[in-house]
Each structure stands twice: as C-alpha cells, then as structure tokens.
Amino acid sequence: MAEGCMRALRYSMVFFNLLFWLGGCGILGVGVWLSVTQGNFATLSSSLPSLSAANLLIAVGTIIMVIGCLGCVGAVKESRPLLLSVSTNLWTIISKESTVLFPSQIEQIDQYAQSDLKKGLQLFGTEGNIGLTNAWSIVQTDFRCCGVTNHTDWFEVYNATRVPDSCCLEYSDNCGLENPGTWWTAPCYERVKGWLQENLVALWIFALCAALTQILGLVFSMTMFCQTVKVDTFYA
C-alpha cells in the first residue's frame, strides 16, 4: 500500500515538474524572441540597465527550467538532496514574492521607481544609451504621456523649456521646441499604472496561477522528501 502511494506520488511529481519545466521553456523562448526582435528596446531604469523585459523573462524562464529539471530528476531517483533543493528554492521564491505584497513595501517600491526613472531621463539621447532612448520614445508615444511625473521633468534634462519630440501631440522634427500647448502633459508613470490597474484581473489571475503552481510544487516535493525519509527509516 505504501509502495503504491509512493509510486503515485512519484508519477505526480514527475508530471507536475515536467509541466513546470515546459512553462519555463515557454517563458525563456518569449524572452529570447523579445531579445532578438526588440534588441534596442531596453529598460527605462538607470541603476539596472540590464533589467529589460527580455532579460527578465530569460532569467525567470531559466530558473523555472532548472527547478523543474531538479524536481523531475529528484522524483525519478527519489533523491532527498534534490527534493530538498527544490523545496528550499520554491520556499525562497514564495517568501520573496509575499514580502513585495505588503503595502509599505509597495509604497517604497513606488517611490524608488519614480526616483530611478527620473535619473534615467538624464541618459536620454546620450551615447551608448540608444535602448533607453528608444524605450522612452515608445512609452511616451504609445501612452500619450510626457516625463515621469510631469512634462517639466524634461526641463531639468535639457536645461531649457523643451521636451523630446515623442511628447508632441502631432509628431514632427523639433516639435519639442515649440509651444507647450502642443505637448502631452499626462505623467507616464501614472498612465502606465492606470493601464496595469485596467488589466488587474488578468494580472491577478496570472499571479494566482503562478502562486498555486509554486505552492503545489512545494507540497509535492516536501511530501515526497518526507516519504523517502520514512521509507529509509523503516527499512533501516
């Protein structure tokens, strides 16, 4: 009876981690595709220049693939070190994610993000920062906004009353030097936050699915680890 339960648990663990691994492959594939097709679209951040959407997806996909692979091998071989490693990694990920959900943390992240984005404006149009420059141009054009908290953020960058041409209601060369009445005045930070809030249901569904997957992986790996310990103790 115990052997049958152990076999069922092992097959479930292998199946689950195979799905986990395939999900990681999918995320990694999307990240590579973005990196190849959107190479110039880099991050808006100045302190984390390598934290683009593509690099983030590649990193997340790789981590998920590694955990899924370790879980599959650990389940097949009933290896306690591998099962414990999977459990520890999943617990660490879940703990880190849960701390971000606290209101105080969200407020701090919000303030830090705005400050960091304003620093990134100083690199706009400079040599070696074509990715950041293109990113700001795309964001301002698509969201019809200008600057981080206000279009006047650009005044400090140029030391003059002007904005990038991507801030203009109707794009034309050097339109950022014209009348302020021809510029977008909505802050990009608030526009992007508003877009995220409009898609909050989809984001929550994704977050809940990800959390459920991680919790199930943690439960499976810990249960199988405990069962292997019991079996070894019983036959010792």
From TrEMBL:
Any Pfam family the entry gives: Tetraspanin
Q: Which GO terms describe its cellular component?
A: plasma membrane
Q: Which cysteines are joined by disulfide bonds?
A: C146-C167
Subcellular localization is given as: Membrane
Transmembrane portions of the chain: 12-36, 56-76, 201-225
Family statement drawn from the similarity comment of this UniProt entry:
Belongs to the tetraspanin (TM4SF) family.
Q: What is this protein called?
A: Tetraspanin
